Amino acid sequence: MNSDAPQTLDIVQAGLAKRRRRETRFRWYGRTAILLAMTFLALLLANILGRGFSAFQQTYIALDVYLPPGELSPPTPQHLAKVDFEGLIKQTLRRSFPDVRKRRQKRALYRLVSSGSAYELRDWVMEHPEQIGKTVTVWLPAGADVDMYMKGSVDTSVPEAQRRLKDYQIHWLERLKREQRLALRFNKIFFLNGDSREPEQAGILVALKGSLYMMIVTLALSFPLGIAAAIYLEEFAPKKNFWVDMIEININNLAAVPSIVFGLLGLAVFLGYFGLPRSTPLVGGLTLTLMTLPTVIIASRAALTAVPPSIREAALGIGASRMQTVFHHVLPLAMPGMLTGAIIGMARALGETAPLLMIGMVAFIVDPPQGFLDPATALPVQIYLWADSPERGFVERTSAAIIVLLVFLGLMNLLAVLLRRRLERRW
Amino acid sequence: MKLKSLSITALLAALSFNLQAAGRDYIYVVGSSTVYPFTTTVAERFGKSTAFPTPKVESTGTGGGMKLFCAGIGVQHPDLSNASRRIKKSEFENCRKHGVKDIVEIKIGYDGIVLAYSRKPPQPWTLTRRQIFLALAKEVPDPRNPGKLIANPYKQWNEIDASLPAIAIKAYGPPPTSGTRDAFVELAMEGGCKTFDWIKALKKEDKHRYKSICHAIREDGAYVEAGENDNLIVQKLEADPNALGIFGFSFLDQNIDKINGARIDGIEPTFGNIAEGTYPVSRPLFIYVKKAHVGLIPGIPQFLDEYTSEKAWGDEGYLADKGLIPMPQEEREKYRKIAIELIPLQSL
Description:
The complex is a heterodimer of chains A (about 425) and B (about 350). By secondary structure, chain A is mainly α. Chain A has helices spanning about 10-50, 70, 75-80, 85-95, 105-110, 115-125, 145-150, 165-180, 190, 205-235, 240-255, 260-275, 280-305, 310-315, 320-350, 355-360, 380-385, 395-425; strands spanning about 55-65, 135-140, 180-185, 365. Chain A folds into 3 domains: about 10-55; about 55-195, no CATH class; about 205-425, MetI-like (MetI-like fold, Orthogonal Bundle), CATH 1.10.3720.10. Chain A contains 18 helices and 4 strands. Chain A has a 3-stranded antiparallel sheet. With about 350 residues, chain B is α/β, with parallel strands linked by helices. In chain B, strands 1, 2, 3, 4, 8, 9, 10, 11 and 13 form a 9-stranded mixed sheet that branches. In chain B, strands 5-12 form a two-stranded parallel ribbon. The chains are: A mainly alpha (about 425), B alpha/beta (about 350). Strand 4 (about 365) of chain A pairs antiparallel with strand 2 of chain B, so a sheet runs across the interface.
């Protein structure tokens, strides 16, 4: 042997330090990437939580309202609907602050309570008819400016002329605070009301219900259709057939089509051709079905391919028909993967805004939908609408709605993970 | 598969047939995002104070709204349309073509467009419309040879006028799809453009050329299209004290602790000045009503009654609180009469 020639080991050792350095470097690249991603995520979450958390509380004002028996009886819903409760509240406010005389200041005084509080008072009286004729202390939602002040979003150091809340208003608020007539309470309005022009009256119920109805439609259509299509393509369709290949390519391409395109499709087909009503969860769900279907088909097919061929062969070997093989043996094993795919597809559909813009779900809707054919919005659309509103109070509500949406997305993904953990079988 | 899709089609068709027969019991409004806050306020009050359901208000933009509004008569078509400009002749004719013959036009008030800036810089902005035009137009008259147009050479405000600060020209504003942009271009830009005599003379000779000079906004980065989200522009102004932002008066009104409105032609953008009509950059807002729907959909006359009542659009009404600039008394009376008696628009 020629001892001058470099041994393999020498070559390896000469390059070893360099290779190790390279590897260390690569690991650090990876760590930096993850660190950066985590920082952005943390910043985003901190920003949204920081802004939105205050929206889960709402300022209430305690007012001693006198309920005149003459005007309020009989306390039937028909009669109470006609009573001027706004006038009652204004009267109460004037009595509590007798030194307010100027017209401008009076208007500011009336804005201390929310414009929706008259309806709250009406509902309260309807529940407590025995209190008519007495002076009662009622907690009513405060106006948006008061709410912002209580939550510390009003900077009192800037000159008075540059503030929405003037010095005399702050003076009133400080007095109410001393008398313990101002309190922050859990904001149930946010969960029980539909949209409103007044931030303190705005809630996400319409959006939540709309999203829920849409998800039901989407799930009911895309899951069976997607699974049926996947089973046929994977188990029954002839292999190496031109048309099957075409369909496969198209499904894969459809999964990558921008969602707005599905919105246009929904507009043309469901609204234009079938004449279904605009802004309804039914149309929203149908449009989202178009969007989720390719995702569900692809995930279901992957789940079917993951079932080992030996299962199929064994079933066929003992004389099962192809259909029996699929439905008795392959499908149960592929189900967890299919469910995961469907849930992830649904989570994507839940966060989708663009296609819904095209079919008229960007609308102001106050009354919660009672079914699939009542107009509704969806959570992401509600966020979009509030983000564009001038009133300051909507800033925190936008973030709060984002928090709710994120919670739902998180829950759905968690469900997908749990299902996979519990049901998955490994070979 | 084929059978399944066929049966789904049949199901949908049957469903849609039922729906069209079923009708609709709520008022359906479409149109401008600028009028949206006002119509929704009225809709909410109307829904709470009457037995009628709350109207559905969709924000589609003025042009998109007109297209839906003019598509025909029937429950699937909207009853009202919000507009941040007057209906166009082409839209009016499109309406007639689809059988929408009687349209009631109601002016609801005014909206001011402001050039706002952060409260941080010490010196308040005072601009003329001519300066706005020179700062933001795509082509401006050559300062050395005023009869000729050149690509906008101005990089800093003091190059336009020595009295202006020596900072770079930068304005955040709405994209071309926005009604606010249309109004800004028409009122502020064209207003400044007209101060050049030869361009003004061009209006009679070559209207097309006149428009292309006066309405084109520069695209070299000095005008930043900030999307339709005006809250975003407010945030950008806070971060960048040297920039100006273009949006509707209600955003200035709500954020008065953070931003200030530039004086235009010496007039400050205040509620009073816009209402009196002295502030030069303000525009009327409209709603359009389909008269044929009045018997078809319940509550339309009552909704219009609420909209045109003094407690809504009056000087101290709740719409004024939302930033709508009320019309003068006589104008309010005139349009209330039109709304109550449903007097249709004859022609444009």
